[in-house]
């Protein structure tokens, strides 16, 4: 029986198939996503509704395309624009309701801090401040409800793959990254 990625208690195993939420992009391909559709108008200044791609389940070709786009954008953009390289705008989707599809795990979850530590985002400090008193609930990030089950835990900390907030897995408290 194929396990749902949403029900994992550990990281997915590379090479194994899982049932993964996917949305159908304008070009007709199903793209694996993580977390709910949302906007980030408040702190990140992205008012468009969007999903985040689950990079663990993208093919090597899709990752190459993603990295080429990331490199191209990273040279000439603000941190806010850079963070948008892994999002799918809902307006470009043929099918907005996530559908579970059998997808192979291709890689482990990479660390989020590519934009936090390399290009400190002005919005990130405000985001941390706004959520400093909130705790994890049911392994979901309090910011946008991103599922944190199946996300690597390092030194008792789990990092939300959506926007980079980090929490102590034992206490549920926010761990400042700045």
Task: Indicate the structural class.
Answer: alpha+beta
Q: Major sheet: size, sense and barrel closure? A: 5 strands, antiparallel
The amount of helix comes to 10-25%
Strand content: 25-35%
Which secondary structure elements does this structure contain, and how are they paired or packed?
Layout: E1 17-25, E2 30-40, E3 46-53, H1 60-75, H2 79-83, E4 87-89, E5 93-104, H3 122-130, E6 153-154, E7 157-159, E8 166-168, E9 174-175
Antiparallel strand pairs: 1-2, 1-5, 2-3, 3-4, 6-7, 7-8, 8-9
Structure in a nutshell:
With 178 residues, the chain is an alpha+beta fold. 17% of the residues lie in helices and 30% in strands.
Overview of the structural elements:
The protein is an alpha+beta fold. The protein has one domain (5-175). Helices cover 17% and strands 30% of the residues. It has helices spanning 60-75, 79-83, 122-130, and strands at 17-25, 30-40, 46-53, 87-89, 93-104, 153-154, 157-159, 166-168, 174-175. A hairpin with a 6-residue loop joins strand 7 and strand 8 (166-168). It starts with 16 loop residues before the first strand and ends with a strand. 26% of the residues are buried.
